[in-house]
Amino acid sequence: MSLLAVERLDVRHGQLQAVRDVSLALCEGETLALVGANGAGKTTLLRAIAGAHRPAGGRVLLDGVDVTRVPAHRRVAQGIALVPEGRRLFPGMSVEENLLVARANGRPGPWTIERVLEVFPMLRARFKAKAGSLSGGEQQATAIGRGLLANPRVLLLDEVSLGLAPVAVERVYACLENLISAGATLLLVEQDLGRALRVATRVACMLEGRIVLEGAASGMTREQVTEAYFGLGRGALPKQAA
Amino acid sequence: MIWLNQIIQGVLLGGYYALIACGLSFMFGVMRIINLAHGDLAVLAAFLVWAIVDHSGMSPFLALTIVLPVMGALGWLLQRAMLERSLRAGALVPLLTTFGLGIVIQNLLFAQFGADTRSLAPAIGDLAFDSWSLGSQIYVGQLAGLIFVVAVALLGGLQLFLARTPLGRAIRATAEDPDTAELVGVDSRAVYAAAAAIAVMTVAIGGTFLGMRAAFAPYAGPAQLIFAFEAVVIGGLGSMWGTLLGGIVLGVAQNLGAQIAPNGFLIAGHTVFLVVLGGRLLRQRMRRAS
């Protein structure tokens, strides 16, 4: 059975329907990469799964249990954690305090602050520094650490490489690959297609709120994804029909 | 010597202002709510303590321990029933609702207790007027000293609570970003309600000492609000130690002003407040320009 399932999800921002009729499933230990252009609805989908955004229709299931009406903070306790876009640390609080807040309110489990520091050693030196004063890479490491400390069953990662120096991206991804090989279940949004295809077991591509392509990462070519990404295939269809 | 005396008395007066301002500062810093009913809640607490003392003859300090949980529950209820809803409608709406709440409290107090001025001073005996002498010319009121100690303990305790405890950290996280706090598992509604309960409990402490130190009447709230607000603004948003410092600066300025001229008390206090506020705005503008 899938650990996380999304069934026919519709999410609106007022008049705008950002996510349309999306269904997807994620098994334990799988990594699903969500790709798509800006505004395709990836962030909204992740926020709806995490409970930060109430969907207009459809369901979110965690381990077969309907959590669609469960508020975000209770979903964290049930095992869904989101590392939000733009990192969203508490800037006036230290790295330690950012981690402690997550530790105090998450599930019990193997992740401790000491383990987060082992995975992200660059945080050790900045442990007492205000999160607002960190570099982008350090902030991202703190944000991922904060997500891990909730000991989630599914970790949602929204554009973890956005705005980071290439070196920092490498470092963050090296850590993610460690997590993946340790059996974590991840749903990640990634703009870099090559990277997404490399780390993920499956890839789903969103276009204008819908999933237009989904499949095993190994069986998918860059061209296929690019076509779905820009919606190139769609324009051709009516012509064929005519 | 007279100047030294004025400074010492000013510091003690500042402790009183900080004590009154504590709950206002906490609510302002955490929930971004300017609670215009703050003074009225303090007067309400003073009346509750007075009613218990009047009825049973017990010590006001003991009566305060009964009133504290009542005021805490009231704070929790206010947050859930009023402030939470009005916050959703924008930053200005809580200003209106708490303004309205203040008027409701004033008139309920008037309806219940009438227009008489009351005080808790008779109930605390010698403490109301006894003093310690420091040297031959300086006397420090015991009540004023007690109020100062309570203010330092309360503000310091709150500062420690915010910095060191899980609930304190959850409160600060929620204050910085409620949306993200939810995403790391913090129940932001519950945290806000707890913060409101704590804030109103500190108001009860402030109100009780207001009643011991001087007299109060149903419409005395707004006058308390002004000095509390000035102490918070001088001390800076969201810092408990800042509020203590702000209260002291205000108290010292008022006492020195009074020494210079009889009507200098209020003028000096308000001037310091305006100068600090103007300085802040100017610095902000210069920072934006650079």
Provide the structure class of chain A.
Answer: alpha/beta
Number of helices of chain B: 11
What is the average per-residue confidence, as pLDDT of chain B, rounded to a whole number?
A: 93
| Radius of gyration of CA atoms of chain B, rounded to a whole number | 19 Å
Please name the two chains that share the biggest interface, counting residues whose Cβ lies under 8 Å from a Cβ on the partner chain: A-B, 29 and 17 residues
Q: Which bin fits the share of residues in helices of chain A?
A: 25-40%
Proportion of β residues of chain B?
under 5%
The run of helices and strands of chain A is EEEHEEHEHHHEHEHEEHH
State the major sheet of chain A.
6 strands, mixed
Order of helices and strands of chain B: HHHHEEEHHHHEHHH
Distance between the termini of chain B: 46 Å
Oligomer: heterodimer
Please indicate the percent range of residues of chain A in DSSP E strands (runs of 2 or more).
25-35%
Quickly count the helices of chain A: 9
- Unreliable runs of chain B, pLDDT <50, ≥5 residues? none
Helix/strand structural class of chain B: mainly alpha
Gross morphology of chain A is globular
Write the layout of secondary structure elements.
The complex is a heterodimer of chains A (242) and B (290).
Chain A: E1 4-13, E2 16-26, E3 31-36, H1 42-50, E4 57-62, E5 65-66, H2 72-78, E6 80-83, H3 95-105, H4 113-119, H5 136-149, E7 154-158, H6 166-181, E8 186-189, H7 193-199, E9 202-207, E10 210-216, H8 222-230, H9 232-241
Parallel strand pairs in A: 3-8, 3-9, 6-7, 7-8
Antiparallel strand pairs in A: 1-2, 1-4, 4-5, 9-10
Helix pairs in contact in A: 3-5, 5-6
Chain B: H1 2-31, H2 38-56, H3 60-88, H4 93-113, E1 118-119, E2 131-134, E3 138-141, H5 142-164, H6 166-176, H7 178-183, H8 188-213, E4 215-216, H9 221-235, H10 240-260, H11 264-289
Antiparallel strand pairs in B: 1-4, 2-3
